Amino acid sequence: MAAYGTRAGIEGTVSQLVGVTRTRTTPYRTLHMTHLGHVLTAVGLDLHRRDA
Fold first, then answer.
1. What pLDDT score does 35 carry?
2. What's this model's pTM, rounded to 2 decimal places?
3. How far is CA 28 from CA 24, 41, 52, in A?
4. Which residues touch 33 (CB under 8 Å, ≥6 apart)?
5. What residue ranges of the chain have pLDDT lower than 50?
6. CB–CB of 34/26 below 8 Å?
C-alpha cells in the first residue's frame, strides 16, 4: 500500500510538470542539451511550486 502512495506522488508530479511546462518530449538531439533541458524544466517547476 505504501508503494501506491509513492507512485501516486510521482504521477502527480509528472502531471503537474506536463501541465505547467507543456512539455512531453524534448526538442534536443544531444544528450548534453537534453540533460540541460531537464534540469531547467525541474528548476522551473520548483519555482512554480514555491510560488504556489
1. 92
2. 0.66
3. 12, 13, 29
4. 26
5. none
6. yes
